[in-house]
Structures are given as structure tokens and as C-alpha cells.
TrEMBL record:
Database matches in HAMAP family: UPF0301 (MF_00758)
Superkingdom, natural source: Bacteria
GO cellular component, one term: cytosol
Provenance organism: Allosphingosinicella flava
Name of the featured protein: UPF0301 protein IC614_04135
Similarity comment: Belongs to the UPF0301 (AlgH) family.
Length: 186
């Protein structure tokens, strides 16, 4: 029997007609996926009227030299919980390496390091996450809803959020304007 394919280090792209408005045009960086479930951070939308300095000030951290970037809507689960997806050139307590491609950190030490100019060279911030129970994402992958692409640094760190979904499909050789919300069987 083939072992299941785990998707950590890849991006999930919501197909048109996914059926859940929270995930329309979603781009989700899969940070953990195994037999116990999956966790991903959404990178397809930003939190309106909230920037990184606002978040730091709410936590009584002086923004220092940290850029005042947007905060991504990481997902519907625990929307007040913060995450930093970042390059592998920094690691702190609780940092998780994701398939050798990027790291995920969710502790105050990375926020303080970013404010002090000692954090990772590349990063994005998010609030909340998308979570799947054991076998749930695997089952969803058998239906029309998600498409996977390699989770590249360019898509994560260099691509404007408003273009990320289109660019991810284009990188896979797919013109997203030609996608349909219908699925069928052969």
C-alpha cells in the first residue's frame, strides 16, 4: 500500500467554487501535515486596518526597526493567535522548520527580534490558521476544492497578496481565468 502524501511545504490553492466563502481564492501555506491532521497559514487576504506595528503595540513591544507590514488572515481558527512564517536564517524557541523551505514561529521572541532588527531576513505575519483533523485534508484532496503547488519563497515573500493566487496558478502553467467551479468524472 502506498504511504499517504503529506503536503507540508506546499501551498493549497482554493479552486473556484470551493463552497466555503472563507476560502475563496485562498492561498494556504501548509506548515504541518501528517496522520494526525494538518495546519496551514492563509496568505491570500489581509486583515483590514491592522498592520504589524499595531500588533506589536497591542503586545507592549516597541516596533523599533520592524517594517509596518500587513497582517494576513491566517485562517478561521484562533483568529487572535499570531504566526510568523519566515526564512530559515533565524530560529528561536518553538520555531518549526517546514520541509526545509521556511519556518513557522508563534512566540514573542520572534516579534522582539524583528523589532530589534535581529529577526529573519524574510517574513510574513498572520493571525489565525486553517486546521484539519486526522484524515480531513486527505479526504478534501480527493474532491474538487484544492490544488497544490510548491511553496516557494517567491510566492511567500515577494508576491503581493492581491496577486498571489493568480501567480501561484500561473507558476503551475494554469491560466486561472480558465478555471471553472464545476468538477466532473472521466
Amino acid at each position: 500500500m502506498d504511504s499517504p502524501k503529506f503536503l507540508a511545504g506546499q501551498f493549497l490553492l482554493a479552486m473556484p467554487g470551493i463552497g466555503d466563502p472563507r476560502f475563496e481564492r485562498a492561498v494556504v501555506a501548509v506548515c504541518a501535515h501528517d496522520e494526525d491532521g494538518a495546519l496551514g497559514i492563509g496568505l491570500g487576504r489581509v486583515v483590514p486596518r491592522l498592520h504589524f506595528h499595531d500588533l506589536l503595540k497591542q503586545l507592549d513591544i516597541d516596533p523599533g526597526v520592524a517594517p509596518n507590514t500587513v497582517i494576513h488572515q491566517g485562517g478561521p481558527v484562533e483568529p487572535q493567535r499570531g504566526f510568523i512564517l519566515h526564512s530559515r536564517d533565524w530560529g528561536g524557541e518553538g520555531s518549526v522548520d517546514v520541509a526545509g523551505q521556511w519556518c513557522l514561529s508563534a512566540t514573542l521572541d520572534i516579534l522582539k527580534a524583528l523589532a530589534a532588527g535581529r529577526g529573519p531576513s524574510r517574513w510574513v505575519a498572520a493571525l489565525g490558521y486553517a486546521g484539519w483533523a486526522a484524515g480531513q485534508l486527505d479526504e478534501e484532496m480527493t474532491r474538487h476544492g484544492w490544488f497544490t503547488v510548491e511553496g516557494t519563497a517567491e510566492l511567500m515573500f515577494d508576491c503581493d497578496v492581491s496577486q498571489r493566487w493568480d501567480r501561484a496558478f500561473q507558476g503551475a502553467g494554469i491560466d486561472p481565468r480558465l478555471l471553472t467551479s464545476e468538477s466532473g468524472t472521466a
